[in-house]
Amino acid sequence: MGRKILLEKIDIPGINTFDGYRAEGGFSTVERALRSMKPDEVTEEVRISGLRGRGGAGFPTGLKWSFLDRKSNNPRYLVCNADESEPGTFKDRFLMERNPYLLIEGLILSSYALGSNTTFIYVRGEFKYIIGILEKAISETRKKGFLGKDILGTGYSLEIYVHSGAGAYICGEETALLESLEGKRGNPRIKPPFPAVKGLYGCPTVVNNVETLASIVPILAMGGMEYVKIGIGRSTGTKLISACGNINNPGVYEIELGLPVEEFLYSAEYCGGIKNGKELKAVIPGGSSVPVLPASLVCRTASGEPRLMSYESLADGGFATGSMLGSGGFIVFDEDACMVRSTWNLSRFYHHESCGQCSPCREGTGWMEKVLHRIESGHGRQEDIDLLVSIAAKIEGNTICPLGDAAAWPVASAIRHFREEFEFHVNNPALVSNPRHISFAKHSQVHV
Amino acid sequence: MGLRIQHRIFERDNLPVEFSPAIMEKFRQLIARYPEGRQKSALLPILHIAQEESGGHLRVDVMDFVAEMLQVQPVEVYEVATFYTQFRLEKTGKYLIEVCRTAPCAICGGEDILDRICSRLGVQDGETTADGLITVQSVECLGACGSAPVLQVNTEFHENLSLEKVDELLNDLKKNAETEKDGKLKWAEKFC
What we know:
The structure holds 2 protein chains of 2 kinds. By secondary structure, chain A is α/β, with parallel strands linked by helices. Chain A folds into 3 domains: 18-229, NADH-ubiquinone oxidoreductase 51kDa subunit (Rossmann fold), CATH 3.40.50.11540; 232-334, Ubiquitin-like (UB roll), CATH 3.10.20.600; 339-447, de novo design (two linked rop proteins), CATH 1.20.1440. Chain A has helices at residues 18-23, 28-36, 39-49, 61-66, 91-98, 100-114, 128-143, 174-181, 210-222, 224-227, 261-266, 311-314, 318-321, 339-353, 359-376, 382-395, 403-427, 440-447; strands spanning 76-82, 116-123, 159-164, 205-209, 231-232, 235-236, 238-245, 251-256, 259-260, 280-284, 293-294, 308-309, 329-334. In chain A, strand 5 and strand 6 (235-236) form a beta hairpin. In chain A, helix 2 (28-36) packs parallel to helix 6 (100-114) and helix 15 runs parallel beside helix 17. Chain B has helices at residues 21-32, 43-53, 60-70, 74-83, 103-106, 110-121, 163-179, 187-190; strands spanning 95-100, 134-139, 151-153, 156-158. The longest helix of chain B has 17 residues, at 163-179. The chains are: A alpha/beta, B alpha+beta. Chains A and B meet through helix 7, strand 3, strand 7, strand 13 and helix 14 of A and helix 2, helix 4, helix 5 and helix 8 of B.
């Protein structure tokens, strides 16, 4: 069994109630931190722990916290990003549903460290029932004196509010989230200034993912020096991985960073191998935005080393032969999956979700969707494949926020690794005209 | 998102806008969560409740009412209502079925689920049945990929779907409509 920290107590009955959580030692880190630690000492533990943002970017959390403008006379805010919308990612939903008090405890510790007296949890609107769970957890915690004015008689006051989004992937981007929280369209802001200096209402703000903030609890409980020993190299700690697609055991798993991908994919403890005894075709290891890996590069890197579930190993080989850990949304495709259709599907997603601010993304995502649909439906031209590569290259790096990159990478990587499949579609229009149930794998058998 | 309502013309129906005292109180509580002068922050949560209280979509008059309440220009409400996919400007059925169409669901049969619903109801994606009971809408990732394929009925999740389960669900919705008991929690009950 791998080491569990965040999900260690997830199966204990009643852990989702205040009393049940408290009986398991819940809120003891709050008691200790608020009574005997200075806010900067909490931040220092987080820095030592090496914790990196679990939302996708992997930026060191302690460093992000250290950027917060503490000299400003304005109030400081902590905002919890629970706008979990990256296709393939459903770990935060699981955590909030099953152990909401862990997040609340993490929020209190983090708010104390950052000096926030008003903290918001921005939850995607589709998770309406999660909003109810969090509201209840906040109100219980408040009744027990761990939230509100003068918490535990320490003089520190904190209110936590749940704020609902309304269906916009872009609001997972931190500045778009802040715009949305201010009651506006979710158009990302130009950085700098970064939220740490000018964030919510123009005040210094830190935005962190649910899993990141929940991880503060075990870090404070064991100490940063202990946490840093878990994991591998600069990938410290554990990570929640949400596994889905054509596997036997889809679900949320906590892994110690550094676990071999092969073990994660095939062992019965985790994904349990490919469903229906099929062959593996490809994996998107970190949410739909990261490059897809063909079967040959999933368990081993291009240099033949075992591929590990860590920030570094999944990125080994750069975008030529690697990918990213991202949000931990692990999407598995079996031999029947059509990569052209899946790539078109994801392009449609990014086109739909582009906020429309930057021309390369607004126009480019639509072009990619159209060209991919043309190829997929048997009307593709040979030059379309290079056209897609060219469009993707022109979006990447030319937009205010990373949604442009996120739209470009899946297309570029699918063509890089599965070019012959795109060519097959172009060259065999009759065979792909009813594509949904006839995969490329079967096409090639027909063809040969 | 931005393109969805490209050519829409806003029309007022000049019907009165009224919310119950309890709902008005919820609105006040929501506004009080945000710092003074930042009442606009309450816009999204308030629009959710206003939409539900108005039968599932936002009339222009309702948006104007919200604008006045939050002391912002009406256009500030329109631009938000048209940006976010959960806000609907056209009348929808009593039940809004939102079927996930994004890749993780699609490779697990999500496209077949959408087809089945449309063919059973005799409507296209995005349309409402003639009796006004059910609207079918394909949507992007609902964040429940581990239990694909998934859909939501008025934001209530239905997961690990099969064609049989979908048939059952449609029958249940029709039965429910007859007894007028859907038991779903409203936005207003979730907040505050």
